[in-house]
Amino acid sequence: MTTYFIKFLALLTIVTPLSLGAEILSIGSPDGRNRVSFEKPGKELTYTIDRDGKQLILPSRAGLHVDNRVWEMALGKRDLAQPDCWMDLLEVDSVSYHAPVDSTWHPLYGERSTVHDRYNSATLHMSRHDKSDYRLDVEVRAYDEGVAFRYFFPEHPAAIFHKVTDDLTDYTFPEGTMAWSEQWAQATFDHTPVDSILRPAERALTLELPSGQWVALLDADVDDWCLTKLMARSDKKSTLSSVMYSPVDIVTYYATPWKIVMTADTPGKLIENNDIVQNLNPRAEGDFSWVKPGKIMRSTIISTEAGLKTIDFCAAHNIPYMLYDWQWYMPCTSHDGDATQVVDKVDMQRVIDYGREKGVGVWLYVNQHALMKQMDELFPLLHQWGVAGVKSGFVQYASHRWAVWLHDMVRKAADNRLMMNIHDEFRPSGFSRTYPNLLTQEGICGNEEFPDATHNVTLPFTRMLNGAADYTICYYDKRLKNTHAHQLAASLVFYSPLQTIFWYDTPDLYQGEPEIKWFEDLVTVFDDTRVLSGYPGRGIVMARRNGDDWWAAAMTGNDGSQETIDLSFLTPGKKYNADIYTDDDSAGTRTRVKVTSRKVNSGDRLLFDLKPRGGVAIKFSPAE
Question: Which of the four pLDDT bands, split at 50, 70 and 90, describes residue 22?
């Protein structure tokens, strides 16, 4: 179907929503490749998703279960039917098709400086034809990057509160679909058939279909909802069901988070499609010009002297931030702690003032105990001290209550001009578009755990689809399982506007290794991002641009690989200086990284024989 005809159809059905039949909603993406349909032929609301005429999601259940009996009785509606499932008595009233959207916007920072927001959309309207006054809409968008839908409760005239107890949304895949799943946000991955996911698995969940197509299941705009995971249904083959961590109490009108089914022909294209997560969140309101992304190094010793020394190292190596991690106040894992009082061995104001002189901002770790107890008092105080940002640790996030609390924490930090980095299990769903002071978050099995290379080259196609991740890159620590060139490459592949480097390291470990120039030159936000090749668990080749400069990196798994970097992403007709960082036992340094330079252009192809657990990092700058 042509784009022109889709636009004509959408405009026509705005005026006459029943003209195509009220019982079925069906829309295609602007490029015509993705198509989604919703209908309610009986008690169950069902949907399907096709790509190029092939089914990605076979007929699957949709909807929510609501337990409103107590509120119904309290508000005088005591004779309403109580079906086994709240969806059973809903009937489709109409389908509204909306005008196509085709726009661009420019984020404060990101993997791309221009984001394209382009989709077709429609809404399925349902209600119960009794005295309940219950209504439910399904809002659906079809993007070239995938399909998104959410449930919307119009305002209830009797002000009946809604207690949502179950998310009924299923995803039925063709038999033979394989998934990369993990049971918690900081876990490693299992590569198994869909039916083998017997415990709730995290989003993003990446799947390879027998047809060779790729799908990833994510969510967006989740600040007023609970954590929802996915697990196999025992009574329906190749089907994943939604698992809510807790009930959600809502007041109508109300929209649930968006459910995203990303689609792609290759796993690398999933990464390039991840702007869909941002597009499904509200835009930022107000002034966030004070938010400044950059690199950060931790002072591993809590003392004034260690802080000053770390600041000197940061200033010398173009690292704009320094972090005091836990124990700058005590006890930091108890409600008896007081984060307004600094331990005696740190002259905090001296360190902050010295950092300001050197152009290095200071971040502070604060545990949930202190945040629960003191946040309203603490955030204005930290701003008064001159603190640049807060790293929150061990925060609760999964239940409805704690999800609201956590996102309100980011809002309060913004009110006090504090940037944020949320650590431990929390994963992003695009909230940084609305509150850009949330630069990054953990929610990843990163370098604190010293994962192997196969795990690292699975992450870009899974966890990194959600958004930025604070991987906490180590460099000199003897516990590293992977090569140093692999570590350099990771700092480009694992996108984070606040990129932590030298996580377990101290300034005195540096011995003049020439490859540290890679970290000095590296930026943390980009104008363009391209995935040149890759497959989960095997390897990835990625290129990113900032201004006129390009950075490229290749990472391989535990077994090593041969990788070709096609330089066609460079501007044709221009020559570039390429600074290349590779593993080489003859390099003459303890890190065994060789630094070479050469002239290249867009017609060149660079070949690398990556050793097991290895990598390569390259910076391209226009030649004079």
Answer: low
Token representation of residue 31: 């490029």
Q: Which of 552, 435, 428, 558 is nearest to 492 (CA)?
A: 552
pLDDT in tens, 537-587: 999 999 999 999 999 999 999 999 999 999 999 999 999 999 999 999 999
* CA 301 to mean position of chain CA atoms: 31
Q: For residues 351 and 307, is the Cβ–Cβ distance under 8 A?
A: yes
- Return the sign of the alpha-carbon dihedral for residues 200, 447, 581, 572: positive
Residue carrying the six token digits 């299941």: 217
Backbone angles phi, psi at 93, to 5 degrees: -95, -40
Burial of 485 (0-12, 13-18, 19+ CB in 10 A): buried
Interatomic CA distance for residues 222 and 258, integer angstroms: 8
Q: Which residues contact 324 (CB under 8 A, 6 or more apart)?
A: 298, 299, 302, 307, 346, 351, 362, 363, 364, 365
Q: What is the mean pLDDT of residues 378-387?
A: 98
pLDDT at 387: 98
Taking the C-alpha atoms of residue 502 and residue 447, their distance in angstroms, rounded to an integer, is 10
Residues with Cβ within 8 Å of 375's Cβ and at least 6 positions away in sequence, in order, are 409, 412
What separation in angstroms does the CA of 334 have from each of 104, 375, 621? 46, 15, 50
Contact 584, 594 (CB under 8 A): yes
What DSSP line would sit under 234-263, residue for residue? Answer: TTSTTEEEEEESS-EEE-SSEEPPEEEEEE
Rounded distance between C-alpha atoms, residue 284 and residue 438, angstroms: 12
> Cα dist. 97→31, 48, 227 in Å?
17, 18, 30
Residues 140 and 122 sit within 8 Å (Cβ to Cβ): yes
Within 10 A of 282 (CB to CB), how many other CB atoms are there? Answer: 12
Q: Is the pLDDT of residue 6 over 90?
A: no
pLDDT > 80? residue 238: yes
- Looking at 332-465, list the stretches that DSSP marks H as alpha helix, in order from N- to C-terminal side: 348-358, 368-385, 400-415, 431-434, 453-456
pLDDT at res. 19: 36
**Does residue 15 register a pLDDT over 60?**
no
Q: Which tens digits make up the pLDDT trace of 319-328?
A: 999 999 999 9
Report which residue type is found at 93.
D
**558 and 539 Cβ atoms separated by less than 8 Å:** no
Distance CA 425, CA 546 (A): 30
Q: Is the dihedral of CA 90, 96, 97, 99 positive or negative?
A: negative
Give the model's pLDDT for residue 624. 78
Tokens 């990843």 belong to 444
Does residue 238 contact residue 33 with C-beta atoms inside 8 Å?
Answer: no
Q: Degrees (nearest 5) of the Cα angle 445, 448, 454?
A: 45
Specify whether the CB–CB gap between 120 and 31 falls below 8 A: no
CA-CA distances (angstroms) from residue 9 to 2, 6, 14, 99? 11, 5, 9, 9
- Answer for the pair 431, 278: CB distance below 8 angstroms, yes or no: no
User: What percentage of residues in the chain have a pLDDT greater than 70?
Assistant: 96
- The answer to whether 576 touches 599, Cβ cutoff 8 Å, is yes
